[in-house]
Amino acid sequence: MEIDFGEYRLSSELRGHEDDVRGICVCGDTGIATSSRDRTVRFWSLDPAQKNKCTSSKIMLGHTSFVGPLAWISPDESFPEGQIVSGGMDTLVLLWDLKKGESVQTMKGHQLQVTGLAIDDNADIISASVDCTLRRWRNGQPIESWEAHKAAIQAVIKLPSGELITGAISNIMMCSQSHVNILIANLFTISLWMIPIYVLLSFAYFLFGIFIRNLFPIWKKNTYLIKNKEILLVLQIQLLFLIKQAAQTTMHYLFYNIVCLFLIKQAAQTTKHCLFYNIVCFLFYFNNRNYFFNYRKSYDCVLKPCTTFFKTLKRVGGLKLEELPGVEALHIPGTADGQTKVVREGDNGVAYSWNSRDQKWDKIGEVVDGPEDSMKRPVLDGVQYDYVFDVDIGDGEPIRKLPYNRSDNPYDAADKWLLKENLPLSYRQQIVEFILQNSGQKEFAFDTSFRDPYTGGVTFELTFFFSTYISRISGVPTKPVFMHIPKKGMLFFDVAQFDGILKKIAEFNNALLLDPVQKDLSLTEIEMSRIAAVLKILRDTSHYHSSTFADVDIALMLKLLKSWPDAMVFPVIDVLRMIILHPDGARLLLQHVKEGNDMLMETIKKVTTAPALAANLLTSTRAVTNLFKHLSFHPWLQGHRSEILDVFSSCCSSSNKNVQLSYSTLVLNYAVLLIEKKDQEGQSQVLSAALEIAEEGNVDVDSKFRALVAVGSLMLEGLVKGIAMDFDVQSIAKVAKASKEVKIAEVGADIELVTKQT
């Protein structure tokens, strides 16, 4: 079959999301909906005048973490334009009125991230989650729940027949009533055969055990220890049972295997434990033979007491199972967010974490013990791992804990961790390399069956090989595959030490109060309380979609920027940096800028005048970088591009690595913006700034990497490839490609590949 590679062509690009897109949903013939890590759902209306053209018409805010799956409910009388259902990392399922762009229902019930959505024939909402459950919702209320998988459910779809198919990490399961009935019937058959066969085998095992122990007695601390010869004979006995299985039915065969595995496990226990178990079974067989006709009584009289005994020996998390508190301990509220507690649930110990926001204990998972040296293994959230790494991703982010077992697929572990930490998937390769290097698995063989859960792709090398192969068999040339370019989306600085900022402002304010000359510049008690209130709003990122500022708050910040001495202004700029990230804060700030009082540009010029303080350069470059988050500020950024890049150019030679990184991030954001705007003059200036950073010998690795990404992106998708070639960018790419830093070498190879394109 010949493939028509020209059948599908790119017709338009929809730009608006501020982070990677996680879900897409077709909404009839009216448009499409998209979801993103930026916590928004956007609806794009089809342009009736231009086929295949869409425009952003609604932005729906309500999720407190990134949004994933989407589903569309067709219009009815109540909702003439239909509804959209969204699920997010915040465990919520939200129902939106497409006409108003507002949330009309919030469905709570899942314990972990919502990963899939489907709509059944009754317009009920079916949601799947990482917590291994499916839930059915009607009119915003849960009416049904299933725990169909033992692993995180990744997707759910409804078949035309009405059945649901769910996909998990380990398998796929079709849910229907008939399957449930068959499962129950099979369990009943297995339990019916269990007791009589097991007791007979235990009796035989007991007799052979006496014979073996008489031949090989070893006394140590009043306990018989099983030695290798005993285990060998026991295994020979098991072999006799296995031979006998050949004449049994499939059901018997299955059960004999289970019994023999259990007996082999017993052989590794102390003789005291084996004797106890078998003597009980033997005596019961002779004294209560009539009970074998009632397998329920057999369970109550034989297995239940023995099982209870062995429960007293089980340990979880280094503690005896019997010493753990029961589930009633979860009725006692926790004392701090993230506090962990391990409780006994049946035969297992289960770890829970206290959720201060919802005032409840969230289930983490089952706690298991490893080998005898398990107490030496690191523990995270009540679970033991082979490794628990400290990960510093830079950019002022806090240190994070990365758990890993050597049996895990490092790519799978990296993906799960990035999702849990709400970090961009662009960190994936770096995390994998970090895991392999620190776990000693440098020779890890990549599993070619692995597929990225979001792109469906494998590693770069395999993807490149496959595309090249398709090119050869089809005769159609394929585009080169780049690892780091072109850059899509902007980077921001969204972490702040709010307590430190408030403390520093209070310290400077006290200094002004004590200075007779500058006393009039100090803040009143009411103004200090206003700043504390502003920081409280900024600290609560989960309510950015609903919290607001007063105009006097922004006016107060601008007043301080204008009046306070240069040496004291940097904590105020840091507050402004975070206000910019807040939707309402950015809106109010833009109003002040549009009114002709452009305090932003005045402040930038003020704090960059030589000799500029490193703290002022750092906070101001980060503040300007954060302006790229909002489309409404893009015209201002484009209009002041030349001034901004000129006044911050000294950051390139700064000895402060954080200042270097902030400046290179600013340059990279400008590259992305000006490529989109097709501004050749602006691209030329940004290219010059990026090349200056790339050629600087004393620049931090991360700063150089971002500058090289800017260069490669401008050459690949911008209008300045010829200018870059005139600047001898080939030499810069060659030097970068030879770097010992992996990501520098990779982006150097990307740029070299661009230079070879015609």
TrEMBL record:
Keywords: Cytoplasm, Repeat, WD repeat. GO terms for biological process: proteasome-mediated ubiquitin-dependent protein catabolic process; ubiquitin recycling. GO terms for cellular component: cytoplasm; nucleus. It is found in: Cytoplasm. SMART domains: WD40. Residues 483-754 form the PUL domain. Residues 353-449 form the PFU domain. GO terms for molecular function: ubiquitin binding. The keyword ATP-binding does not apply. Gene3D superfamilies: Leucine-rich Repeat Variant, PFU (PLAA family ubiquitin binding), C-terminal domain, YVTN repeat-like/Quinoprotein amine dehydrogenase. Its main location: cytoplasm. WD repeats lie at residues 14-47, 60-106. SUPFAM superfamilies: WD40 repeat-like (SSF50978). InterPro entries: ARM-like (IPR011989), PFU (IPR015155), PFU_sf (IPR038122), PUL_dom (IPR013535), WD40/YVTN_repeat-like_dom_sf (IPR015943), WD40_repeat_CS (IPR019775), WD40_repeat_dom_sf (IPR036322), WD40_rpt (IPR001680). The keyword Transport does not apply. This is WD40 repeat. It comes from Macleaya cordata (Five-seeded plume-poppy). The lineage of its organism: Eukaryota, Viridiplantae, Streptophyta, Embryophyta, Tracheophyta.
